[in-house]
Amino acid sequence: MTSLPLLLLAVSAASVLAESTVYWREQFDDGDAWTSRWVESKHKTDYGKFVLSAGKFYGDTEKDKGLQTSQDARFFAMSSRFDDFSNKGQPLVIQFTVKHEQNIDCGGGYIKLFPSDLNQEDMHGDSTYNIMFGPDICGPGTKKVHVIFNYKGKNHLINKDIRCKDDEYTHLYTLIVNPDNTYEVKIDNKKVESGSLEDDWDFLPPKKIKDPEAKKPEDWDDREKIPDPDDKKPEDWDKPENIPDPDAKKPDDWDDEMDGEWEPPMVTNPDYRGEWKPKEIDNPAYKGKWIHPEIDNPEYTADSEIYKYDSIGVIGLDLWQMKIVIINSGTIFDNFLITNDPNLAEEVGNESWDKTRDAEKKMKEKQEEEERKNREEEDKKKREDAKEAVDEEEEDEDEEEEEEREEDEEEEEEDEEEGTESPLKDEL
Ligand SMILES: [Ca+2]
User: What broad class describes the main subcellular location of this protein (predicted)?
Assistant: First the structure.
């Protein structure tokens, strides 16, 4: 009889957990109104501009409008504020779409979540943030998804390598951080990585360390093999390394008096066996490899709330590259969602990203097909023009020969003229 109340309790607990909250959502579906919600940083004077655009190809001309970086080789810094919240005791889901339609060479596609005390007008690369998440591409070497957490004032990068998408289509990126200190990263609504915060980031010092007190005992024999003490060098082992060549003969014209006593040249001794070593046998005293015993690290303190941020209040696009300072523009950010409900995020992803991606792909393929046709036509025209030119040349050849003769004659005449002209010129 006790099972029913327990079941009810479980159901109500589940329904409490399932209560979903959307902290912030941005889809850029109200024209220019986004400009009142986003604040451009004034930390630098030459930030690149974001514009509202669905890009060159898209699934839906209106819905696929998002924030697009519009100038090459710039830094971009813009942010949007929402009601301050803490993710204490709740999952935290950050989701957005990124489209590098420009076939990106080097540039970030990540977001930063800031505490609400961020001064948006002064947001810059070193502004303290809680979480940085999203794709980062720079050349063929860097194509990864960043998941960086600020823990007790220090930024920690994930220890795992999560590869990001590097094509020109829209992709959905989702980070879920759970109150049991686990996480999940999804791309296009599919899990690409998951695990425990403690295992996959170096937030805490190691749980165990090698015991500094423990030392390998001096009589610990860790030699697996030893030379056989009973093995003895055979009596006939030692032979000289080089011997006089037995085949050498004293030359007939050798004169002992003149040339001195003849000695044969030395050659390598085929019977030479090198240095003798006793054979190796298993060491009867072998105790195995010594393993340094470990103890609990006194520096380690467990933290059940690694995941937790007391204040989350601003989302920012702060894109920059430290090394080459070039971001090639064209990236479109859209469908931002911050919620406590992973299921809702999945549904929103399906409703937004999944619904338009096929149409987006088709449009791009159609454009590529048209471009290909145009190129072919141009090439064809070029070839035809070239052919015409050749035909004309052939036709002209006979005439040209004629002309050449005439030209020669003319030149001769000219030379004569020049001959008469030059003194005149000198005088002038
Ligand atoms: Ca949109």
Answer: other
